[in-house]
Amino acid sequence: MNDKLVNLMADLNEDETIALTKKLLDSGEKPLAILDAAKEAMAVVGKRFEKGEYFIPDLMMAGEILKGISAIVKPLMESGGGEAEKKGKVLIATVEGDIHDIGTDIVTFMLEVNGYDVLNIGIDVPADVIIKNIKEFKPQVVGLSGFLTLAFDSMKKTVEKIEAEGLRKDIKIMIGGGQIDEEIRKYTKADAYGKDAVAAVQLSRQWIGA
Fold first, then answer.
1. Burial class (CB in 10 A: 0-12, 13-18, 19+), 107
2. What is the DSSP string of 44-83?
3. What is the CATH number of the domain that holds 57?
4. pLDDT 10s digits, 42-77
């Protein structure tokens, strides 16, 4: 039955995916099994995107389906005492000047699925707001996202302001989105870049040690 869920989600059949999710949970399926199926489906979506079979609107659709599944499954996980088992805190933001949230939604979901306490503060976020949230939320990892090339300068300025505030020694900074590569990582002075949500989880696990 979970294979059917993977296929429905990968084929972007939103209504059928949500209906089957509810049916599986009602029949006793574990929430984590549902999330594992969602991760598998997202891997398929990613491969189809890389091959040119899917495009940005398809990724947006996959993100919406993820949100729907997350809304159903997360309360069940939390009621089971999931909050006490959080592995660490990760702050996520799309930097100032960029309004893309496809990647951050997927990264947020994947980190939460893997047991991290995630604060996603949205799109077009100025450095000062990111710093304010770092001080309040106290994350071990900060993820900065940007799909547009103009976001690179915003990332650089944000990292510089984090350093100026004396916060850099307490956190690790990862960047992602669009055409991010090692050269951009060096330019922004981030600690690492991730090509996808799986990389974001791996980096968080490596840095937090959970």
1. buried
2. HHHHHHHTTSS-HHHHHHHHHHHHHHHHHHHHHHHTTTGG
3. 1.10.1240.10
4. 878 878 887 889 887 888 888 889 889 988 987 886
Q: Which of 83, 116, 133 is the last residue of a domain?
A: 83
Q: At what angle do helices 31-50 and 56-78 cross, to 10 degrees?
A: 170
Using alpha carbons only, what angle is made at residue 185 by residues 183 and 187, rounded to the nearest 5 degrees? Answer: 70
Assess whether 108 and 43 both reside in one domain: no
With H, G, I as helix, E, B as strand and everything else as coil, classify residue 120. Answer: strand
Claim to verify: residue 92 and residue 77 sit in the same structural domain: no
The pLDDT tens digits for 12-35 are 999 999 999 999 999 999 887 888
Q: Domain span at residue 61?
A: 2-83
Specify burial of residue 82 (Cβ count, 10 A radius: 0-12, 13-18, 19+).
middle
Mean pLDDT for the stretch of residues 86-90: 89
Cα of 40 vs its chain's centroid, Å: 15
Task: State how far the alpha carbon of 127 is from the alpha carbons of 117, 124, 159, 166, 208, in Å.
Answer: 21, 10, 8, 14, 23
Q: Buried b / exposed e across 29-52, counting CB within 10 Å, b at 16+?
A: bebeebbebbbbbbebbbebeeee
